[in-house]
Amino acid sequence: MRTCWVLLGILAVGCGGAGAQATRGSFAATTRQADAPRVTRLARPGWVEVVAQVIASNDESPASARNRALIVARRAAVQEVAGVAVTSGTVSFLSLRAGETSELAQMLGFTRSEAVIVDERPGPERIEPIQGGYRLEVSLQARVLDRRAEADPGFRIEIDLGGERFLHGDLLTLSVRSTRDVRLIAVNVTDEGAVVLLPNRFLSEVVVGAEQRLVFPGPDLAARGVVLRAQVPPGERRVLETLLVIAVRADRRVRAWESAGVSQADFRVEEGGEAVRMLGDILAPLADLPPKDWTMAQVAYEVTAR
């Protein structure tokens, strides 16, 4: 039996310049009147509580406004703990479609090598009617891991997919190189869910030597029919996918990953809230490791319909 994994499209962007510009302008206009986030450091190390708000029109759903407010809250949490200005390309992209961005996309937007939100607990929300719309306020407790002081600056991984733009149906090959001996875990995240690519039932342990290059799927798996194929979901013209790779020193074992059973299935797939929880379960154990013992990288790539 041939095994095939099809990459799903994620983070669908606007289909035209005018639409994207309108969204960008609307985002700027609605957030300009909101109060600045209020951040309080909690007694637990790395934990902060953020109260953030946005202004929404009557045409915007509370769910959409909530996503925008959570973006503001997560950005404020990272900047409070790590002092890192969150201006990555991912977050810039999120701002364009803030009202439609999934929780999974937001988690990736605030997952960086310098500072990582490894746990969070949403609190109460408050809606206040105003002329022409409403003000939505959210509270969020977040645990932010600041790696900069203790990280190993020479510990890096490089991800290569052979390009950043692909057409529907193209075959992809993941290539990873590390400067240290490592164990790898690779997760592909979409707006609909997340898939653990490595490890899996075929490669239950993914150990790569320093300066060696891992190619997935390699010749053995390719001979068994395992492929990575770019795909645009029905009804979409262009999508963006994100691949997250975490590397832990080879002499370290992350028991939480093993107990979660990420290597038991062909490729573990979760959707919706379960995918959010799975990604959280993968990130949370990193807080218990010395920052010098792990690193991460992520790459976004675009898939266009033929």
Note down, in words, how this protein is organized:
The chain has 306 residues and is of the alpha+beta class. The chain has two domains: 5-13 and 150-304, Immunoglobulin-like (Sandwich); 33-146, no CATH class. 24% of the residues lie in helices and 36% in strands. The chain has helices at 17-32, 62-82, 89-96, 103-109, 219-223, 255-259, 272-283, and strands at 5-6, 38-41, 47-57, 115-130, 133-146, 157-160, 165-167, 171-172, 174-178, 182-189, 193-198, 207-208, 213-216, 228-229, 238-249, 269-271, 294-304. Strands 7, 10, 11, 12, 15, 16 and 17 form a seven-stranded mixed sheet that branches. The protein has a four-stranded antiparallel sheet with strand order 2-3-5-4. Strand 2 (38-41) and strand 3 form a beta hairpin. It is globular and about 65 Å long. The relative contact order is 0.19.
Q: What attributes does this structure have?
A:
306 residues, alpha+beta, Immunoglobulin-like, 2 domains, seven-stranded mixed β-sheet, four-stranded antiparallel β-sheet, 24% helix, globular, disordered N terminus
Question: What characteristic shape results from the CA principal axes?
Answer: globular
SSE-based structural type: alpha+beta
Q: Distance N terminus to C terminus?
A: 28 Å
Radius of gyration: 20 Å
Named CATH architecture of the largest domain: Sandwich
The number of distinct structural domains comes to 2
Strand content: 35-45%
Kindly identify the CATH topology of the largest domain.
Immunoglobulin-like
The average pLDDT value, as a whole number, equals 75
Order of helices and strands: EHEEHHHEEEEEEEEEEHEEHEHE
**Individual helix count:** 7
Text of the CATH class of the largest domain: Mainly Beta
Strands, count: 17
Helix content: 10-25%
Unreliably modeled segments: 1-32, 86-101
